[in-house]
Amino acid sequence: MRKLKRSARLVEMTQYLLARPHTLISLTAFADRYQSAKSSISEDLAIIKEVFEEEGIGQLHTLAGAAGGVKYIPTVRKEAALAVIREICRQLEQPERVLAGGYLYMTDMIGQPAIMSEVGRMFATAFAGREIDVIMTVETKGIPLAYATAMHLNLPVVIVRRDNKVTEGSAVSINYVSGSTKRIQTMSLARRALREQSRVLIIDDFLKAGGTVQGMIDLLAEFDATVAGVGVFVESGEVGAEERLFHDYVSLARLTHVDLKTKQTTVVPGNYFDD
């Protein structure tokens, strides 16, 4: 790469870091890339670190030693995240979104990359301190959420299927009981998709009784994998604690009331924002 003026180098370095979250980059790599002394690179990184932290963009972690370098950790401040979620809640309260069974129509919102990026950053912030190897979700609406989260954590995504695809080779399949409908359903995961003893973050779009997520947890047991965390976009607050199949999860929004006759709903920020 040609030698840049310092102002241009700062811009390019910032973009380079933003595109590589949770990736350790050595000072030598930066010095070679920009044809600059390590002392100059260190000064530049100090400026970027200060701006990132002041503006709530994220954190720049520095690791000393021969194998050290810098790592960009995307984060979002709680107050900024709360403002975004409140707007999402307002949109979810639109009467035309109410579906039979007390569900909400969210497909259009999940299909908006800007919203999903914000949601993914929130999940990445919530689980940043945990050791995670892979993000897992079940097809289909959880996929954009999982990829948005994976982008900010720089992790691969594993998709659980409702049925086995011949193009994915041999698979592990289990039966599980849907928490809301009480029906027995099937989910499967290709054997090659997940290494044994992986640490897995489960991401899902909607949590009612939790049958689908519990199914994924049971499926992970077949791979001797560990659940590193569970994140859900919206949870149903109308389901009692005794009905929910598990209780350790992070939710970004909570559907607390649905009137199917009037189609009036109440959606509030989830337990991620609880003090």
From TrEMBL:
Q: Which SUPFAM superfamilies match?
A: PRTase-like, Winged helix' DNA-binding domain
Cite the Bacterial purine repressor N-terminal domain residue spans from the record: 5-74
Extract the Pfam families matched here.
Pribosyltran (PF00156), PuR_N (PF09182)
Q: Which UniProt keywords apply?
A: DNA-binding, Transcription, Transcription regulation
Does DNA-binding appear among the keywords?
yes
Residue span(s) of domain Phosphoribosyltransferase:
108-252
Signal sequence, renumbered to the chain: none
Keyword Transcription annotated: yes
What PANTHER family does UniProt report for this protein, alphabetically?
HYPOXANTHINE/GUANINE PHOSPHORIBOSYLTRANSFERASE, PUR OPERON REPRESSOR
In the record, the note on similarity to other proteins reads:
Belongs to the purine/pyrimidine phosphoribosyltransferase family. PurR subfamily.
Q: How does it assemble?
A: Homodimer.
Q: What is this protein called?
A: Pur operon repressor PurR
